[in-house]
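Fill in residues.
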């Protein structure tokens, strides 16, 4: 029976919940898998049962799954050991694939971030713990900046259908990947290639008729509500196809990442917006907005002081 090990680094653990969200299909998969390490499922510590070992031990397995970006020296150590100890390595979720939300921190220095988060609002001047916690790396790294994964499953969180499909493909020795198409390609909204109004302030309500099909609602961007669909890989709807946020009358934030390797979502979005008559320069903080989930790979960097 194939053994599976899951390690989580800089995460919110939504990816682990996505694994549980596989639902009924998970009941079919569980008897075919033997979990040897998974912090969300079992009490299995790296430093021995009581934390009393002096050497960090990473489990060996046929399949290793990493969720989360590489933020600490300990994460890096585990990623390197895991690559040696597992046959197939999967990066699961946007934090692992591109740094995700924690990599927004790459726009500031480690020192300034620690100062802002831990020192600003205290009444007494204290010290950061000098030891006993893993040291932070200079920035958040995607897993593939440290070790080479065999499979990457994007999304924040990833769609459970993709997790199940990828594992089933792996078990039967078949390849698995997502198409290089945009969220717009699966979006049913009405498009007339012309914006009705200029870009609105964030969190404005779209215009739609409750209960009416999505095909009757005008595209968010054409309503002046910023939607990252044109520069984002499709697939978040899983077997249902309809993009998850659009189905909930919300614009796409870009959580599936770029449509293909090497694409630049900020450049693609500026082109898409200007093609319907919108001025992307109106958007404050364009860098963070269009790279919100992909801050590793040097997409987000510390900006020089003005
Ligand atoms: S990818 Fe999203 S859901 Fe998964 S750990 Fe990161 S923030 Fe959480
Ligand atoms: S921009 Fe957004 S609302 Fe418009 S078609 Fe693309 S995904 Fe749909
Ligand atoms: S619509 Fe965009 S932000 Fe929403 S789940 Fe899909 S890819 Fe992610």
């Amino acid at each position: 029976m194939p053994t599976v090990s899951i390690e989580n680094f800089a995460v919110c653990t939504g990816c682990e919940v996505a694994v549980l969200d596989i639902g009924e299909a998970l009941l079919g998969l569980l008897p075919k898998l033997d979990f040897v390490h998974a912090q969300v499922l079992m009490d299995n510590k790296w430093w021995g049962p009581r934390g009393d070992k002096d050497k960090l031990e990473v489990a060996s397995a046929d399949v290793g799954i990493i969720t989360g970006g590489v933020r600490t020296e300990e994460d890096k150590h585990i990623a390197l050991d895991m690559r040696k100890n597992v046959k197939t390595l999967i990066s699961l979720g946007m934090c692992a694939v591109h740094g995700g939300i924690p990599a927004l921190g790459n726009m500031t220095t480690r020192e300034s971030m620690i100062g802002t988060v831990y020192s600003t609002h205290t009444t007494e001047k204290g010290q950061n713990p000098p030891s006993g916690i893993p040291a932070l790396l200079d920035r958040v790294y995607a897993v593939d900046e440290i070790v080479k994964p065999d499979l990457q499953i994007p999304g924040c969180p990833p769609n459970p259908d993709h997790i199940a499909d990828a594992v089933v493909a792996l078990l039967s020795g078949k390849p698995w990947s997502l198409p290089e198409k945009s969220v717009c390609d699966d979006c049913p909204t009405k498009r007339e290639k012309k914006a009705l109004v200029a870009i609105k302030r964030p969190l404005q309500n779209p215009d739609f008729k409750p209960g009416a099909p999505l095909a009757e609602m005008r595209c968010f961007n054409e309503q002046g509500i910023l939607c990252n669909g044109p520069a984002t890989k499709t697939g978040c709807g899983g077997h249902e196809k309809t993009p998850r946020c659009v189905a909930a009358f919300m614009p796409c934030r870009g959580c599936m990442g770029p449509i293909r390797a090497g694409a630049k979502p900020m450049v693609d979005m500026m082109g898409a917006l200007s093609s319907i008559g919108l001025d992307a320069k109106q958007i404050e903080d364009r860098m963070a907005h269009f790279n919100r989930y992909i801050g590793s790979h040097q997409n987000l960097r510390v900006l020089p002081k003005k």
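The mean pLDDT is 92.
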